[in-house]
Specification:
Layout lengths: L1 E3 L16 H13 L2 E5 H7 L8 H9 L7 E5 L10 H4 L6 E4 L5 H10 L2 E4 L8 H10 L5 E3 L3 H9 L5 E7 L23 E8 L2 E7 L7
Parallel strand pairs: 1-7, 2-3, 2-6, 3-4, 4-5
Antiparallel strand pairs: 7-9, 8-9
The structure holds NADP nicotinamide-adenine-dinucleotide phosphate.
Length: 218
Amino acid sequence: MVSTLDGAAQHDGHSHPISCPADMRIFGTLRALADVVLVGAETVRQEGYRPARARAEFAAAREAAGQGPAPAIAIVTAALDLDFSLPLFTSPLVPTVLLTGTDAPAERVRAAERAGARVIVAGEGRRVEPARAVHALAGLGYTRQLTEGGPRLLGQLVAADVLDEMCLTLAPMLAAGDAQRIAGGPSVAVPHRFELLSLLEEDGFLFGRYRRPGKPLR
Ligand SMILES: NC(=O)c1ccc[n+]([C@@H]2O[C@H](COP(=O)([O-])OP(=O)(O)OC[C@H]3O[C@@H](n4cnc5c(N)ncnc54)[C@H](OP(=O)(O)O)[C@@H]3O)[C@@H](O)[C@H]2O)c1
């Protein structure tokens, strides 16, 4: 996740105005290490998600780790209001996964499956349960899970205490306004404590890697 000094997680609906080349390199590296990228449907819609790429510089490491050439994208969605004619669904290297609830619109589920997506029920009614989503992905063999938010999804993952690590870019910018913070939704009873593992800097941007104590580090 990337945030400005005053806590904005986006500007004009996008995160790229608050990002930088080093942030994008880290973003790409984290993807290259992951089995699956878990993301909320609004981020997919706003940021125009495409399938993850296979990158030559990570091919040997992925093969040695028993991973396929690129991570799958797994989208959390209640409505399945997504354009299934996009490459994200029709031509990924690994089928895109949709995590939804038992009451997902049947016609949208069929459209997703026709396009080649894998639909997994991970919650009752319209709501996906974050912990159930994490377990469902692990059941597919996707144990190195990376979430790219957005804030509404990340807030639920925080509340369910299923994050074991946090990579946060702090952009040397002030945005004011009413942009979302990196994690939204109801607050947790007691703030979850993380420990700092590393802190890098480039062009005034800080790149922090944090771990939730007690959770295994991969
Ligand atoms: N700064 C950063 O690092 C960063 C990272 C990512 C995104 N962003 C920004 O954040 C914004 C989008 O984030 P957002 O927080 O609004 O949305 P989001 O978390 O990406 O997606 C929200 C959507 O995900 C689905 N969803 C979330 N939780 C669900 C649950 N428990 N059960 C079923 N479906 C669920 C719903 O999809 P349906 O509507 O399809 O049902 C919901 O509308 C964009 O502006 C993006 O640029 C910033």
